[in-house]
Amino acid sequence: MNGTQYKSLGGENEKLTVPPYCNNRLMKYPLHKAADGRWVHDWVRQSSVKTADMCLERFRNDIWGLVSEEIKDASTLGTACHSVAEDALNTRLNGGEMTEQDMLDSFEYYWDEALPTIQKWYSYSPESAYVSGIAKIKSWREQVLPDLKPVAVEKNFNLPLYEDDQRIITFSGTIDLVEEDRCWDWKFPGRDYSRNKWEYERWDVQSIAYSLATGIPDFSYAIMHPKGVGRMDLTRGEEHYQWFRQKVLALAKLVESQIGNYPLGDNGWWCSEKWCPNWSRCKGATTGGIN
Ligand code: SF4
Question: Is 182 in the pocket of ligand 1 (CB under 6 A)?
């Protein structure tokens, strides 16, 4: 390996969990150098861009793997529900149909596996999470599944996003469902946020990224909340793609700058012990950390 060494990529005195340089493009480090000397950015996912919108310092910690995140109840429940949806859609893709009982059995299986791994209970007890999961699966099955025509399920992509004489930026992700004319994402949250559609219209990153990745303008969120199902339909086009590239390019230049800490974005719900794995050594370590 003969790449440049970057002492401060992870910030002063911080231990990186990946080597800070690499010339091998096959290896997935967030930032490295190509043989021609250009930066190669492999960290771009819709979630990393969304995190940067909230707090750049959290973003820096995430892309360099500086802090490990606790396994939480709500996200684990969401993952189990996603797995059931994936099973049901793959079954349909292969010409079959899962019954309601099949799906509930599938949920039991995934939930039983996931339960012992949960480290933090914030939103549920084990019992209430189970009951909520059953209700969410039933809602998804009754109100979302009937009309779906899967073309690809849990579709991975890894695509070029931007390239100039100084950098190459790729972006990657996994789309819950691709239909011929629509991409979908399932959400299994504790509240219905489909009433905030205007916000998603203006600045939602996920719908733009997935639309750009597939070339399909129409994107929908199905939101399985405690009172039923909300849905948000968004249409994305070239103007959104251009903005997404600009946002990512600005972040890429920041990442290349090799400075230590990034600006601290504490002005929202995400800056809390519950949501930020960096809390205890950042805002939580100061008197400003009182919620
Ligand atoms: S504790 Fe707050 S300011 Fe610090 S990294 Fe987390 S979200 Fe950002």
Answer: no
